[in-house]
Model the fold of this input.
Amino acid sequence: MGAIAEGLQATRSRIQAACRRASRDPDCASLLAVSKTFPAAAVREAHAAGQTRFGESYVQEATAKIAELADLDLEWHFIGPLQGNKTRLVAERFAWVHGVEREKIARRLAEQRPPHLPPLNVCVQVNVSGEASKSGCAPDQALALAALVAALPSLRLRGFMAIPEPTDDLSLLRGRFRQVAELLEAAQRQGLAPDTLSLGMSADLETAILEGSTLVRVGAAIFGARTYF
Ligand SMILES: *Cc1c(COP(=O)(O)O)cnc(C)c1O
Done:
């Protein structure tokens, strides 16, 4: 078995073990393979090992890879920070966007989503650590932004995404993830129908699953260390 197939298998085992430990269904969290910085050949290898959902962070890199892999049936997720001048390519080429943090970006994506495609799946990104350098809207603005996304017909509100600050303090980390889980519940109580908590990466997927993550975004544990981020 190649290194990527092994990385996938090990990651799937971690997810299943974490779901069991959280007393959740063994397939409670879907795996998004984060292929940023890795070549199309690596994605092809992961696909051959059964992976179909892939995440990318850089628009130019991603669109080249998507074109190169057009012969495969893949589901592409944009997970990077999204500038206003890059929304069109994302609206045209991706199935999901995890990093929507402002009304203006949501409206542009909605306008630019081609009408022949299904609605673009959107997660609102929340800055749970309050770090000025981090992407995401303030937690107290997340529900309003979610409601706006839900009201735009070419977008489909799926849920919330967050990247807490790195920490060894597990109870702090759990609290960050829980804050996002509570936003999802609040949105559901308001009559919105989000179903996705995009939480957890290579280093912290177990903790994220304990707090209800339904989708983990994993790069390094599958593809190896990146030489740039
Ligand atoms: C790069 C990236 C990941 C994957 O991180 P790993 O530590 O390699 O698992 C997940 N989410 C986002 C938003 C990323 O940019």
The chain has one domain: 3-223.
